[in-house]
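Appendix B. Raw example, untouched.
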Amino acid sequence: MAVSLHTRRPRIRLKFGRLLTHLVLFVGGILWMYPFLWTLGSSFKSVDGFFDEGLSIFPREFEWTNYVNAWNEASFSQYFFNTIFVTVFTVILTVIFTAMAGYVLARKEFPGKKLFLGLVALTMFLPHGYTIIPVFDIVQRLGLLDTLWSVILVQTAGGMVFNTFLFMGYFSSMQRELEDAARVDGASFHQLFWRVMLPLSGPMIATVALFTFIGTWNSFFVPLVFTLGVPELRTLAVGMFAFVGQNSTQWTYLCAGSVITLAPIIFIFVLLQSYFINGVAGAIKS
């Protein structure tokens, strides 16, 4: 009897600890999601309801026209197209360039490699405010100012270092047997990358694509600076300021625009979450 009581107590403590952990995580998750849920609910509120209902998530009356008005009155259709254009090309260029750089750094040794990687890693800690002036000057000299390609170029360059290290870690964790077999069949270094290693790096491609997609889609500073002279080239993040007037703010339209902006990110993450988890696990393991 004493033995059974002795064995039950740790089990009860374990179950209680798990229950408490799940309860804390559940409450934390609700608090974490509340701002988004409030924004989603407020996007359906009327102007009066937005102020009268306060922090309530559920609107008393649904104003479905908020989304239509936000889409039409603030030129969200044009901003949406601009954002898709910038994001798609930035993701493609970033994945291609960082995959090539990561594979070379993972498989090739050269004198001073550790020092080089350390110096490159330091650039990730430079604030954007310190580098925007020389970058702006380069873009202006290239004749790309006030174009969407300037945003694509700067966004791609900004994501090179971090994503290159992700690919380098992933390729370093992959076995060399496939490469050795391909070399026996006469494959060159470039053929090894394009035909063998890159197709096998699907999880990391999805991870980098997801990181780049989210960062580019939400980017505010770079599109603001490089499309300042042409309002028609604004992205969604910059276009949100169309709802902020000098004397008033269209809060319900602002909430509707926020939901429109966040919806593609949520969809892409749900679509690629399994690849994202596998890619991050592979990079950390190395």
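End of appendix B.
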